[in-house]
Amino acid sequence: MYNAQKPAPEELPSSAQLLKSTIIAFVAALAILVTVVLPAEYGVDPTRIGRALGLTEMGEIKSMLAEEAEMDKQATSTDGDQSSLLDGIFGLIVGTAQAQEAEVWKDEITFTLKPGEGIEWKLAMEKDAVAEYRMIVEGGRVNFDLHGDGSGESISYEKGRGSTGEAGEIVAVFDGNHGWFWRNRDRQDVKITLQLRGDYTALKQTY
């Protein structure tokens, strides 16, 4: 066996050096937590760096999905049947109105979500701009979050669960992108049609 040569005492780090290294590692870990982990995982962005890096919106979507899952878990089958009946009636009314006024809409998009699949579409809008929308869901129900982000700000306008149709308007509270994230929580494919008109400059898929 070879005898390992022991380092000289003066070659070993001092207590002060070890303390300094520990403090530097702690500060670095804290910086990563605040600027990366919190925005990306929980949508919490005290420094605004996460928003600039695109991490905050990722965290907001994760939080929203977790909230949806918890809401679905707590729901009872009776509530689901009642909601399905009411939403079916509302969807029929919305569908009839849509057929009567389809020619006046500025944009219309249609897409299909498989079970568990999600998608996001947003409008580019200036502050105080108003956009009118009509959403029709066929073949099932969806959860959605109508929200906005931009100019270092974010907002949730409305959240819906088990929806088969919605209609209303968005009034932008700041310059940025404003729109919907949908998630299909049914066991079959769901078709969504979104009709739009009003004061917006672009319509784009963002997720």
Notes on the structure:
With 207 residues, the protein is α+β, with helices and mostly antiparallel strands. 38% of the residues lie in helices and 35% in strands. It has 4 helices and 9 strands. It has helices at 15-42, 49-53, 55-74, 77-101; strands spanning 107-113, 118-125, 130-138, 142-150, 153-163, 165-171, 176-184, 190-198, 202-205. The strands form 2 sheets. A 5-stranded antiparallel beta sheet has the order 5-4-7-2-9. A 4-stranded antiparallel beta sheet has the order 1-8-3-6. Helix 1 packs across helix 3 (55-74). The longest helix is centred in the first third of the chain and has 28 residues, at 15-42. The protein starts with 14 loop residues before the first helix and ends with a strand.
Shape: elongated
Structural class: alpha+beta
Strand content: 35-45%
- Helix amount: 25-40%
The separation of the N and C termini measures 62 Å
Low-confidence stretches: none
Largest sheet: 5 strands, antiparallel
What is the topology, as strand order, of the major beta sheet? 5-4-7-2-9
Q: How many whole angstroms does the radius of gyration measure?
A: 25 Å
- Count of DSSP E strands? 9
The DSSP helix count reads 4
Mean pLDDT score: 80
Could you give the order of the helices and strands? HHHHEEEEEEEEE
